[in-house]
């Protein structure tokens, strides 16, 4: 049996129509032609009325793509930057530090972007903004709100727990403007506090998180050996350490070795 389409539905029987619509049927006595069908045109009254077009609750105009086709500009408008006064830079710096840990240089870059946008939009003096930034950063350092040593130690611990190598940690902190001496001191502090072998601990943490080597099901290890070694090597770990971890039969033995050093 062929499937009936929605347009093939039969018209509703007169019994379900309202009496008001039935009363609108033409009077047989009013037909001019005696031989004509007295109910000629009745089907027009029996068919359901077309649905009313919905209107917008705000404008009252037809909606749904009909009626007025008003073109609306959907292009997002860029917010106008505020003038980079000393007060504005201070409020922005405090707002930034409440939400993100930052080094001195990283905050300086964020504030400098505000100064550059203000100079382009309002014609403010970039040198005056730069002087205000240096004065603000100096004040924040004196009260302890900015401290590169504390920032570096916190970032080293976070990155090491996520499985970042010493090389990766150095690159990430250097990108934030932390000096090499400060980074080295933070790495040494971490090694003294944790003991053992921090580099192996980080490599095992990354392999465990990504299910590499001994953390992968035994049936899949041989087929993914080269891929796992490449993934661990891209994190900056030494080749000998990568090979030991990927080829290890018991990851627990390596974890004990990393913890005890």
Name a few traits of the molecule.
261 residues, mainly alpha, 13 helices, 0% strand
Summarize the structure.
By secondary structure, the chain is mainly α.
Q: Can you describe what's shown?
A:
With 261 residues, the protein is an all-alpha fold. Among the domains are: 86-146; 150-194; 196-261, no CATH class. It is 54% helix and 0% strand. It has helices spanning 19-22, 42-46, 86-99, 104-122, 126-142, 148-161, 166-175, 180-194, 198-210, 218-221, 225-233, 239-246, 251-260. Helix 6 (148-161) packs across helix 8, helix 9 (198-210) crosses helix 12 and helix 9 (198-210) packs antiparallel against helix 13. 18% of the residues are buried.
Furnish the topology, listing elements before pairings.
Layout: H1 19-22, H2 42-46, H3 86-99, H4 104-122, H5 126-142, H6 148-161, H7 166-175, H8 180-194, H9 198-210, H10 218-221, H11 225-233, H12 239-246, H13 251-260
Helix pairs in contact: 4-5, 6-8, 7-8, 9-12, 9-13, 11-12
The residue ranges in which pLDDT falls below 50 over 5 or more consecutive positions are 14-19, 31-36, 42-46
What is the straight-line distance between the termini?
Answer: 78 Å
Number of helices: 13
Secondary structure class reads: mainly alpha
**Helix coverage percent of residues?**
40-55%
Q: Strand tally, please?
A: 0
How large is the share of residues in beta strands?
Answer: under 5%
Shape: flat
Secondary-structure element order, N to C: HHHHHHHHHHHHH
Largest sheet: none
- Overall average pLDDT: 82
Radius of gyration: 38 Å
